[in-house]
Amino acid sequence: MPAATIQISAKISAETRDLLERYVRTNGVKKSHLIETALLHHLRALDAVPADLLIPPFLELSRQSGERVLDLIDDSQPPTDAMKALYQPVE
After folding, report:
1. Is residue 7 situated within a structural domain?
2. Are 30 and 24 in contact (CB under 8 A)?
3. CA pair distance 72, 19, nearest whole angstrom
4. Residues of the domain holding 23
5. Does a structural domain hold residue 8?
6. 76 part of a folded domain
């Protein structure tokens, strides 16, 4: 006997909806199956991985912090030799 199901509602961005629609069309899966699988995967990962190791999908900054980031980008210096070495491929 299948597990009882309930319906939930969530607001998502238009970009996320477009990605969902494209994936469903391309892979022939039902939206409900994809959403439940993704949600279960995410919730299990939250239980399994220490919170300090999780990387959020986006960061929210205050206006003041955002302006500071933009200032730092505008005033950026050329990379140092140490910085260049850090980004070199490992052979």
Report:
1. no
2. yes
3. 33
4. 14-86
5. no
6. yes
